[in-house]
Design brief:
heterodimer, A: 138 residues, alpha+beta, B: 476 residues, Rossmann fold, eight-stranded mixed β-sheet
Chain lengths: 138, 476
């Protein structure tokens, strides 16, 4: 795929989404990287994962593309070695994948937004929902 | 100048309340480059209240007050919109400005144009006719060629009805007996974009060419694959590179061969040329989201959306609303359960999309998650594969034909003024034909007031060339 020679600055809507993520996850380190097309890779670090897992915490990553908010934020990614205490598989919605932004193998969390409202269902709100589901998968 | 039907009805209702008197208003309009000059895109109507904003004139019968003009002109300047003062005359079928009208234009519009730095002018309407006198800049004054209203029927008003001509092109004799020589001329004057030249799109392009549409813009980046042969009209085995149809070919060679197969746009254009039809074709082997393709879409009279992608839907929906161009989205849904193979409810659709009726965004027809996956490119394809969502959708020629025929019939009837009843004014809605039960439904689309595409405030509706369109950011 060819790219335009000059990188496109982050779109105002994407910048606003990142600000909202920073606000919602104010106590966490937020890592942001422009993708050169107007979108941004975003990673929220040091999130507690709850009692189900062997690990204490994880990072949560996602890609807000230049078409946001028309485009959903999907999928989400967490540490590749996330594992349950009981040894059971992680279950539906979890998959082994890779994400170049975090340099390699990850676990992909596939949570589609049904009946999404582009004005209300922000990247921050979606991250909260995914995190909640990660801690309490159904 | 183009009007969404709702806005036109509001203007018309104010100018012709049934009292046979003169009334006034101002239309604020966006601007777009057109095929022959520029197009005005009616975005807002500011009604002049009789006795307060529209009062007895010093020289003419009535006139807009200086206060009203200043207030609206300021908005035209600040929002970069054309300013068009509209009033009405009596009579039907023909209209023109009076000498007093023209004199007042010459007194006021050059200065108004300099103040607003936008196109300014006057428009006069009568029953079934419209005329316009426009100042593009201090040195250029032009007449409005036509005023088009995008309702169920697409109607164009001119200062006088076109002359009735005798006889018609033998090639289109049988169909011209339905909608007359005027209808056939209308088709010949149209430029129609077909986005997606797969099963449904290739059939739509063939139909449009044989209807006598003047010009076709064919947009699709894809090349023919073996599984397309059963559905793409005009495709031949020879369009597939031999390396991908042979019994055994190493994967790498097969991949190289796929790149040598014919482009779908070329197949469609070739089929039309082979038939010797009097239609000009332009092929764009690009994704419609590419800026170059989108720019060409904005110069068309109609858009037929037959592409599967969500980004194509998003872009076409945006162009419809920014440039006030009617569209029809056609497609087929064949749900087949992956594990059991059970076939669900099969249906074909033809959805009319007008600037104030049928917005794909308002009606949940642009899947935000699928859009994201498309935009992610390789990252998205990998994400789909990890959850096993990469199987191709089922497709069959007869159902594609159902969608294409339904959609192109709507386009034909709308363009030649043959839709009747509520369909003629309100629009046909979304036609849905269920193949397994034979039932047909007409779904009435909804509209959200604060939609970013068709909403009345803060949307791209009628912005024309100043609209920010959701085009792709990577060269493809």
């Amino acid at each position: 795929m060819a790219y335009y020679a000059a990188a496109v600055p982050i779109e105002p809507a994407v910048a606003k989404a990142i600000d909202e993520v920073r606000e919602v996850f104010a106590e966490h380190r937020i890592q942001v990287g422009a993708d050169g097309q107007g979108g941004a890779y975003t990673v929220v670090h040091d999130l507690l994962v709850g009692d189900l897992y062997r690990q204490l915490d994880t990072w949560l990553g996602f890609h807000i593309t230049y078409l946001y908010p028309a485009a959903d934020v999907y999928p989400h990614y967490v540490r590749a070695d996330l594992a349950r205490h009981d040894g059971a598989s992680l279950g539906p919605g979890f998959g082994q994948g890779s994400w170049a932004y975090m340099g390699g193998q990850v676990i992909q969390l596939s949570r589609r937004s049904n009946r999404r409202d582009a004005k209300r269902d922000t990247a921050a709100l979606k991250a909260l929902r995914v995190l909640d589901w990660l801690r309490n998968p159904r | 100048m183009t009007f969404p039907a709702g806005l036109w009805n509001r203007l018309n209702g104010h100018l012709f309340p049934g009292d046979a008197d003169e009334h006034g208003a101002v239309v604020l309009a966006g601007l777009a480059r057109g095929r022959n000059g520029f197009r005005l895109l009616a975005k807002e109507v500011v009604l002049a209240e009789d006795g307060r904003d529209y009062i007895p004139g010093e020289r003419g019968y009535r006139a807009l007050t200086p206060l009203f003009i200043a207030s609206v002109a300021r908005r035209a300047r600040d929002e970069r919109l054309a300013y068009l003062a509209v009033h009405c005359h009596g009579g039907a079928g023909r209209v023109d400005f009076s000498e007093i009208d023209l004199a007042s234009h010459e007194r006021g519009y050059p200065a108004l144009q300099q103040i607003t730095r936008q196109v300014v002018g006057g428009v006069v309407l009568a029953n079934g006719a419209a005329a316009g006198d426009l100042w593009v800049d201090a040195d250029h004054r032009v007449r409005l060629e036509g005023t088009t209203v995008l309702g169920g029927n697409i109607v164009t008003l001119t200062p006088k009805a076109p002359a009735h001509s005798v006889g018609h092109e033998p090639l289109f004799d049988r169909q011209a007996r339905i909608f007359g020589e005027q209808g056939q001329r209308r088709l010949a004057s149209m430029k129609v974009a077909v986005v997606g030249l797969g099963g449904a799109g290739s059939m739509a392009a063939e139909m449009l060419a044989r209807l006598g549409v003047g010009e076709l813009l064919l947009v699709d980046p894809d090349r023919l694959e073996p599984s397309n042969l059963s559905r793409v009209v005009g495709s031949r085995r020879a369009d597939l590179h031999p390396s991908i149809t042979a019994d055994f070919v190493p994967r790498l060679l097969r991949k190289l061969g796929e790149r040598r197969s014919s482009l779908k746009v070329q197949i469609a254009a070739h089929a039309i040329r082979r038939a010797g039809l009097p239609v000009r074709t332009t092929t764009m082997p690009l994704d419609v989201a590419h800026k170059q393709a989108t720019a060409q879409l904005a110069l068309c009279d109609w858009i037929v959306l037959a592409a599967d992608s969500q980004h194509a839907r998003l872009v076409v929906n945006a162009v419809v609303h920014a440039y006030l161009i009617p569209a029809i989205q056609i497609g087929v849904k064949i749900p087949v359960e992956q594990t059991t193979g059970a076939v669900g409810d099969i249906f074909a659709v033809a959805r009319r999309v007008l600037p104030d009726f049928g917005c794909l965004w308002c009606n949940g027809l642009i899947d935000a998650t699928e859009l994201q996956l498309e935009v992610l490119g390789d990252e998205g394809r990998a994400a789909r594969a990890y959850v096993g969502e990469d199987a191709p959708a089922p497709s069959v020629i007869t159902l594609n034909g159902l969608a294409a025929a339904t959609g192109m019939t709507d386009l034909l009837l709308a363009s030649t003024g043959l839709l009747s009843g509520t369909l003629s004014s309100d629009g046909p809605g979304y036609v849905r034909i269920h193949a397994r039960t034979g039932k047909q439904y007409l779904d009435i689309p909804r509209r959200d007031r604060d939609c970013p595409y068709c909403g009345s405030d803060n949307s791209i509706l009628g912005l024309g060339d100043t609209a920010a369109l959701p085009t792709a950011r990577t060269l493809q």
